[in-house]
C-alpha cells in the first residue's frame, strides 16, 4: 500500500506541477529531447501531464489500481527510454522536465531514479491483491 501511495504522490506532484505552469515550458523540454516528430510534441505537452496527474490520483485512491500501476509502468519505461537515448546521444538537455519547474535533476540521476521507480512499480503490480484492503477497489469489491 505504501508503494502505491508513494508512486501516486510522485505522479500527482509531477503532473500537477506541469499543469499549473504554462504547457510551453514542458513543450520546450520535450523538444530538447529531439525524439518526437514536431507535430506530436505539442499534443504530448498538453496531454502527458494529465496522464501523470490522473494516474497519481487513481493510485492514491486505490481506484483501478492494477490498470493505474500498468500505466505507471509504461510511463517509467517511457522515461527510461527518453532519458537513456538523450544520454547516449549526448544531447544538451539541462533539465529532465520530470517535475516541471519544481526540481531540476541531471539526466544520470533521473535515469537511476527511474530504474528504482520501475522496480517499485513491478513489486506493487506483483502484490496488487494485497493492496486491495486499503483502497477504493477493495471497498467496492466488498460492497458487491
Report on this model:
The chain has 144 residues and is an all-alpha fold. It has one domain (2-143). The chain contains six helices and no strands. α3 crosses α4.
The overall pLDDT average reads 90
Secondary-structure-based class equals: mainly alpha
Instruction: Provide the gyration radius in Å.
Output: 16 Å
- The number of strands is 0
Distance between the termini: 22 Å
Keywords for this entry:
144 residues; mainly alpha; 6 helices; 73% helix; elongated
Summary?
With 144 residues, this protein is mostly helical. It has helices at residues 2-20, 23-32, 38-61, 65-88, 107-126, 136-143.
Please write out the topology.
Elements: H1 2-20, H2 23-32, H3 38-61, H4 65-88, H5 107-126, H6 136-143
Helix pairs in contact: 1-3, 2-3, 3-4, 4-5
